[in-house]
Amino acid sequence: MFRFLNRDILVGVCCLLFSAISVAELRVSSNADRSNSTALSQATLSDRVYIYYDAPVAASQVRFYLDQSDSGTIFQTENKAPYDFAGTASNGDGFAFATETLSDGQHFITVSVTPTTGAVFTEQASFTVDNSDGGSGGGGGGGGTPSSYTLQFSDNPGRTGASALAGQTLEGDGYVFIAPETDVNEVRFYVNSDENGTAQQIERSAPYDLGGTESNDDARPFNFDTLGQGNHFVTAEIFTGTGIEVISASFSVGAGSPLLQATTTDVNWSVEEGGPAQSSQLTISSSTGAAYTLQENHNDAWLSVAISGSTPSTVTLTGNPSGLSPGSYEDTVTFSATGHGSVSVSVQMLILPASGGGGSGDYQMLISGNANRSGATALAGQGVSGDIYVFISPETDISEVRWYLDDPQLTSPVQTERKAPYDFAGTEADDTAKSFNSDGLSAGTHSVTALVVTSDGTKTVTGSFVTGSGLPQLQSTVGTFNWSADVSDPAVTGTTVISTSDGSTASLSESHGASWLDVSLDSNSTPSTVTFMADPSGLSEGSYQDTVVFSAVGYGSVSVNVNLQVSDNDGNAGGGGGDCFPVSCELIKVSIPFSVEFDQEQGGLEDGAGTGTGMTYLQPSTKGGYKPNLLDVNTSTERLVITTTSGLQYTSTNSLDNAIGVGYAGPNYIARISTVLVDPPTGTGSYEQAGLWFGYDEDNYVKLVFLSGPSGGRVQFGFEDGGSFTTQFNSTVGDLNGSTIKLILVANPENKTLTGRYSVNGGAELQMGVINLPSEFFSFDAAGIDPIIGTRTFTGLMASNRNGSALNYQFENFLIEEVDEGGGGPLPGSGDWQFVKSGSHNVSFPTSMVWGPNGKLYVATLQGEVRELTYDDDFNVIQDNAIDSLQDSLGNRLTLGIEVYHDNPSDPDDFSLWLNHSSASANNGDINSGMVTRLSGNNFQDVEHVIEGLPRAKANHGPNSLHFGPDGKLYIAIGGITGAGAAVDPNIAPSEFGDRAEQYLSASILVADVFEDGFDGTCANNSDIFGLPPCDVDNWVTGLRNTYDFVFHSNGEAYATDNGLGVTGAFPPKPTPDCSGFGDPDPYDEGGDNPGAQPDLLLRLLEGKYYGHPNPSRDECVFKDGSFQGVSALSNYEEEIFDLGDNRSANGIIEYRSSRACGALTGNLMYTNYSKDDGVVRVVLNESGTAVESSEKIFADLDDPLVLSERDGNLYIGEFGNGKVSVLELIASGCWLAAEDAPAALLDPGSTIMDGQLYLVGGKTSAGHTNNHYAYDIDTDTWQTLNDKPGPAVENPAVAAFDGMLYVFGGSTAPFSGAVSNSYRYNPGNDSWETLTSMPTALGGIRAEVIGDKIYIAGGMNGSGASVNSLLIYDPDGDSWQTGPSMSQVRDNPGTAVIDGKLYVMGGRERQSNGTTVDGTLNSMEIYTPGSGWSSGASMNVGRRTFAVGTVDGNIQVVGGEVDNSSSSGVFEEVEVYDTGSNSWSVIGVASNPTHGSGFGTYQGQLVITVGGEESGSSFTNNTHLISFE
Fold first, then answer.
1. Is there a domain that residue 139 lies in?
2. Model-level pTM?
């Protein structure tokens, strides 16, 4: 209810302008259909009301907030109209909002509206709640007309055998619900409270259950034991289409009231139509044994109840079928007595069609050996054993099926099914059939009867089967095949003979699930020789099992088990396609953005005609596989057509065929994954489906599909976690035949969520829901990732006809796009330097690199090959030599570290390579397979295994990097064998690490004096792998989970990156020795040992210190600082110096030793992020090297960068993801060195350098134009004031140095006028001036340059203020002028330079005499070659005028200038360099002190800049800087 405080109040409604103006506001109604509504603003509300938002335009989403702004907690989200505050019922009515849940007083509602076009906007309305008069009392149950609804109780989730809750005595789990369900929009349940309390459960769709409802519509249990013994009550507030009804029911728990007891609580009769009345007797007594007067209550007229005397009473129940048509009739009789808990008796009468009518019609009873009911045959006469699946077909026009086993009188059904499919043993939530174990029956013939209730009456369907000794058996000469094979081996074969136990001939069939197993029969009749063929190609290492079931009608089946153990002894699974059938592993991960439009051959997985789909991955399926004949890339229609099978990934089914997709770098992007289904088939309601999937295996995935269910078409968004289907969202969309539907997944690694959306016919995108995913979905922890594949984040397309017939689904495209791109490539750390990618060279899977003393880069690769790279000065690899000596000695080896030892420091070619490696497999490593090998001699062909028997994890943790320390000893990083210090029982929580425990030399950095006489490097302790190693190798620092790399710094310290936990892990079961044994994988805050995800760390390494990763073999039992276990840290525990962030997989690390970039990076640490935020990060240490001052990402556009090295200030990066070694070239804008200030603050002087001095002539100060003349001695950093220039004081004169003299020409006495033609020569020997022949034209805004024996002046501004394109040439020897060819562009105040006898003129301004500026910042460049004329050069990236120009290293540098309208100063900050060899400009950074109108010149490789303006227009400075370019 609601009312206005003041009827005359005027409610202002905000108008929004879109294509038209319309009113939008929050409104309130007393009616569910929103009729007779009024504005919510200023309304006074009580009781139940219906609040909604009346949108002005179509909106894709409306979010409601109660008493909060739109940054608060969302109260309700509505994705389509109507937009109701409390939600919308399936019939379109709004749900009521109970104002009683709010305190009396002022409240407000905020809406955030996302229109289909336009920006998001918000609305808000305030209202008053006033329930002081107690409200209206709610509705139906509060007195007056009795409610038509009751609270019912059942002891099973299907709600069968239900009776009234009132008076029951309950314990344990039970099922309470509302009946009937008709005309109900919402039910709110309250326990031991009326409707004004807090709801225990809110149900908004049928059925309406106190404990909630499962996805298959079964009731969820409510545990009554949680209430305690005694009397209790449940209140149900029922929102119907006509109002609100409140009902309640009392009951007792445990030892409450005395009870009535019945000798039976279920009475079942069956009788033909028109048959005699049915009677049964029972006894009702009191639990006290005393006599009480008994009352009864029931509803239906066909049932009569006669009570004889007080308790114990004999009760006669009589059912009269007269006048009733065939069908099932049910009633409940409730018996009560004063002071007692009641007892209810359920009475069911099944009326069968009269003899001669109502037969089974077209319904059949079928049997299948499969839960999906495939391969079904008629049940009659079948011989069976083990699990069977019996069901009724077809499913049409059936409202109920009652099943009876060996019960011809139909007295007690074993199963009642009220919705399709109709299964004898019941139906799973995914609509597969539940199995019935026939072995539990006695041997012989058994009958099954089904009463099928239809709109045309009840049909009786019967079937029979034979079990046990009464059934002849099929038999096999072989019961089990046990095979082992390598992935490179041919298929393994074996044979058996299938026959019958009585020698008869039987028609034989077989079924099995695995795609790697082929079964062929030489005859379809017994006896039959059967050939089994198991193909290991395409399988990864591991164990595989399948069961082949042979069956025949009338015979007991026989099974043959096949066990296949697959190995990968030569590492062939990596990269060659063995692990990744049917494509090569390295092709699976694609770059983002990724797009397949199916309009042409795309490569990857092929369709039946051999056309590539563009997909690179097939999601493994235990019973499904790759069936190219069911794929069709139709380039004419530009669609991929998938023909379905019944296979699906669902819990243990795992039979999906053609789950095609791709992999991508999950941690690096917020990815938007989409596809469009065109004209999806309607289906038969048998759960046919097609759409997107996202996950890493058949038991861990999400699907977003269009699905045909019994109630029509819907979109389903569901999550299977560890083989259990845990989350599901559904949205009804109806039949989409002839339409399109776009399915969208947004995968966000930042918050580990997956959002599902869809759009029909190009309309608004509607959000299904958000699913929180485990870290494994985003490939955060590299320990669990095949390094060849490089990811375990996979997504793609799928289709299945499930329980129906095969269909064709058409996919228009498949896209993966980045959302909110972070921007890759160079990231300037300051204005003075940045790194740019200047070249890449193909090297497959680079893992480590080191520079040799011969100037060549040595790169170790994943399987043991070493590449020797020779670079030229332009970062091109001019020689690439493969070194295969390790592989020649041992075969493929997982090689992660390489180091150089300079054996003869006087000879740059006399050195050895040292490699750290272990067994080849990345995910099934051999124990103690770690080795350090020295390669030397000619092309490094001499192989010496210096250290053997080092630890290796089952995952890819093992021997990582190695370095020689300052003491000449060898230091070796060894990864941890476990996730967090303890092994985890794989039967409880399987993980990448298996069940291996830490060893004495694992999870540490080792030290070995390998050059010591008698050094013993044999470390494997074969008698006790957890004992002390029998070698001269020891731990230097311990507690490192997985330090991939470390560095000895020039400051005397050592530093390492360490990867934090990103998968399932556990610390030791106790914090004190002996702490060996399995850890508990449950979260530590729930009593387990799993600390959860941990960040990557930067460590300062100190000998003997422990860094927090436990190792029971060393009695290191405390995880990190002990806080997770509630104990103190170990005494030698050392904390990290910096947290590098979660899931980065920080790996390679170096010290940057170059002094380039003015030493800004010298001594910094630089490391790579491999798994998230792919790129390079610099770390600035404090002066003592004991702490971090700052860190920043300096380069982002990399693909799984694993390692890095530095040479001459440039970075060399091993990009593991794309198989390249890339060069990041350091580009520095210059080192700015402050020098002595000029004697005066000037703007626009003329300038040049002569004999080590920078001369300034003229210009202007804040007081006006001047003829001042100054000289700056660059070597001594001193200024002197010289004799003033004669003649008028001017700005922007041209100044040149020739033959020891200074020449000054022209200039202007005002900014846009007053150009003069005066010419002068200055003699520095006697500090005197002389007048020369005047210029042919008066010009200002000019520069002068010398080529040979002539002085050139190009462009300028004439006396009327117009820019010119002239070229004036002065001959100093003859004191004469001549005119050269004009430029193509007029320009004043340009930049000029001379390189190799050519005049370069760039930039400037084009101005007309009428004051119009055509272009104030020209960027074009023209080049004048004496004797040849003008030519065009490359244009600058940034146009400008009045800027400084340098000529360092034969190139042109441009600094400052004006006018930059995007800068607050108006002065350009970008520093550009022109490469005369390539005729190209590049921006190399930002100037530290940019100016315009400065004096400048180039001297000994430095650009000297002084005075000028720091802001555009008239500003003045006297600063001086010397700039070095690199």
1. no
2. 0.58
